[in-house]
Here is the input.
Amino acid sequence: MTVTIVGSQLGDEGKGGIVDVYGEEADVVVRYQGGDNAGHTVVHEGTEYKLSLVPSGAIRGKVNVLGNGCVVNPRTLFDELDTLRERGLDPDVRVAERAHVILPYHRLLDGIEEDVKSEDDDEIGTTGRGIGPTYEDKAGRRGVRVGDLLDADVLRERLEYAVPQKRALVEDVYGLDIDDLEDPDALDLEALYDEFAGYGERLAEEDMTVNAGDYLASAMDDGANVMFEGAQGTVLDIDHGNYPFVTSSNPTAGGACTGSGLSPAVVGDGEVVGIVKAYLSRVGSGPMPTELGGVPGDTPDYDGDPENPRTEREELAVHIREAGGEYGTVTGRPRRVGWLDVPMLRHAARVNGFTGLAVNHVDTLAGLDEVKVGHTYTLDGEELETMPATTEQWADCEAEFRTFEGWAERDWAEVAEQGYEALPENARTYLEYLEDELDAAVYAVGVGPGRSETIVRENPF
Ligand code: IMP
Here is the structure.
């Protein structure tokens, strides 16, 4: 069977930890979208691992697949593999031949485009990993795929087509002098060819590439349990997210089919677990109706001015940010913080078809007198139960809050050991409210970063 793990919010819901807990029963862990923008932290046997591309299953000795829906930066791939090996692990990672390759010019263009947009305060706040430009080339049918790296002639042909276009874009559209760039080799055909043909050799030597759909189907025929590890989250989905403040792939459950080569029937026959952070965080720009305080540069129309009414709620935001460690895994940037946004979650439950929920960071909210949620929105005098489709409408939504009584700090390791009933009653009331609103049972509750601090009520495998 399959279990698909999907972020229900804006990424950083703690998916890695849940993949780690449920992954114990998985034989194969698959990433189906995104690339090295997906910072995930896994704590295993007291050691913390920070990964951005390699699936978390690599730490637990599983077979890991980067599916065709992924964009793969071979520099990051081999860096992460080498680091895990230096730390005594033996990661088994397979890469889809249909996955697209992030080249250095994609990163370069990601940065240039963000700079240009920032002149009008329109930047997305990307992770700068070249994700968007790589998916653009995929859709534009000028990408380089992992399979192309294995054949030096094909690689050269692809680069001969793409590189002159990128050079023209940088020089003629953006008006930059390539020789003045920090890394002019990013646009040098021969340098790119040498480096990437080398990665092709290493992929072949280590026998890492697969026809992913075929590979997964035959693993399932042999009885394998497959876990799909979604990166980012529903509201960062290119189709169902908050466009244009999105990533360029489909983190939602449908992506598990298109990004792996297994059919919707296979994915739909399994379970889809929505990962929910008990409050909300956001990296980068875009609306956030339940935001507390703000992060200058990311929160729209906010520069940290003490006169700004947002500043009043900053104290609470700082408390939650510190308690929850809300700093980007990839970028180290402080994340924007807000109350749980339930209209967002209703949207996520519909798009993904959650069969269960895992709610993380319940411990982070401990010690507050009251905990609020944005229960509905008001837009132009009308009550909305779910997110509107346009960013402009969403930015105009005002959250209507519901207040819950807070819960006190506990010895969370002890609570986790005793199980769900040991959670403070007010925390259970909060979780049961979510179950009712999203029509899905809470399968797991995170009360700390480690595996042993997750209460597992239901194992979907
Ligand atoms: P990109 O994926 O680097 O193109 O960034 C696009 C948007 O997605 C930006 O707002 C990023 O902050 C956000 N984003 C990308 N990856 C993650 C993640 O793993 N967690 C949270 N936000 C992310």
